[in-house]
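Page 47, continued from p. 46.
Same chain as before, 155 aa.
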Amino acid sequence: MPPAYFKLLRNMPIFGGLNDKTLSLILNQSSPRVVESGDFFFHEGDGADSLFVLESGIVIIERRWKQTMVELCRLKAGDCIGEMALIDLLPRSATARAAEDCQAIEITLRALHELYKQELEQYAIIMMNMGREVSRRLRRTDDRLLALEQKHRRS
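Result:
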């Protein structure tokens, strides 16, 4: 993997506290992924076997509601996509669609399992970091729901 990938991971909260050996192990088992504008990283309901670190581009996270796709958020370079399904091991809860051409690093569940076998403490750190990222996103969602509820009550 190019040194730029190592630097990208090093600067992301989800990989905070991981040592160089761990980052190398993860990157050596990862692969670059290009997703063109309008194409999908994954769909709601798909099985989950990887997460994506967005190197460039914009990704729209959306869910189906009453036969319509509803945009939940947009993610940019430096964000992770799909980590929630690797925590709870359930199908994808949303669809990830490229709003523009994207480059990403795909990190597989297999790579994380290998980390689990080789460096249990480092594995615990990355899982804790993923939990924190999901929690941050949940807090933002709570804030949006509260704002919508307040707006609805005023109308």
